[in-house]
Design a protein that fits this description.
seven-stranded parallel sheet, 5 helices, 7 strands, alpha/beta, Rossmann fold
């Protein structure tokens, strides 16, 4: 049986973060993460990236609110360039795409389209990778800093027993590989930076809304619970965890 991060206690010394960034701060989990950060780190400066910053609610902590489009690298660069190099201690990439009014998860390969696949890869893998490309130089290298990216257990090739959801599964699997690649390169460069994929569990958000009827009783999580659990996961990481995948209970899972 795999050991939870929580059972081993704290990881590397985790100095209370002075600056925390959340990308996708208007989404269900992203918004909850900003609220959990304010609750747990009331003195931290919070950087919030959102497609429409006008939707961001006022918080007690000092905030820096930046507009960005995850599908446009120039927009990502312009937003991140407004952040001082080496200033971020903890970052979350809380973005993701499963469905919208154009695309639904495919039940069969017969439903595959290039537009759906490209959009899923752009949103779930390419966008987060390019965000990390610009974000890493902004992470604090004077101590251990951490980046957590929302992934999904259904992106695990070794755990796939049901099939279907082709675009979502494949794009999250690609994200998991990119996370591993970043971790390996950062290790070569001796950067004090941990980067991991996070599985938030089935959370009550717009992403999961069409599928909640199939969730067993008691297993649909609130966004507040998920956010608090993910913050706890990040506080328990060790350097050797970089590049790995963890769920909201601190349990590792294979790509």
């Amino acid at each position: 049986m795999k050991e939870s991060l929580f059972s081993r206690g704290k990881g590397v010394p985790f100095k209370t973060p002075e600056t925390v960034m959340v990308a996708g701060a208007t989404g269900g989990i992203g918004k909850a993460l900003t609220e959990a950060v304010v609750k747990q780190y009331p003195d931290a400066t919070l950087i919030r990236l959102a497609r429409d910053p006008a939707q961001l609610v006022e918080l007690n902590n000092p905030t820096i609110d930046l507009q960005f489009n995850l599908l446009d690298e120039s927009s990502i660069s312009e937003a991140i360039d407004q952040i001082a190099p080496g200033s971020i201690d903890l970052a979350f990439v809380a973005t993701g795409f499963l469905h919208d009014h154009h695309y639904k998860p495919e039940k069969t390969f017969k439903n595959l389209t290039s537009d759906h696949l490209l959009h899923a890869y752009q949103t779930n893998a390419i966008g987060p990778a390019l965000l990390c490309k610009h974000l890493i130089p902004r992470m604090n290298d004077q101590q251990i800093s951490r980046i957590g990216i929302l992934s999904a257990r259904v992106g695990s090739i070794s755990d796939n027993r049901l099939g279907g959801w082709h675009a979502y599964r494949a794009s999250k699997a690609a994200l998991n590989m990119l996370i591993k690649n970043f971790a390996i390169e950062l290790g070569y460069k001796r950067r004090q930076l941990i980067i991991v994929g996070l599985q938030p569990g089935t959370t009550d958000t717009q992403l999961s809304a069409p599928f909640q009827a199939n969730v067993p009783d008691g297993q649909l999580q609130t966004t507040q619970y998920t956010a608090e659990q993910l913050l706890k996961v990040m506080s328990c990481l060790k350097m050797e965890d970089s590049g790995k995948l963890f769920d909201f209970l601190g349990l590792p899972f294979e790509p």
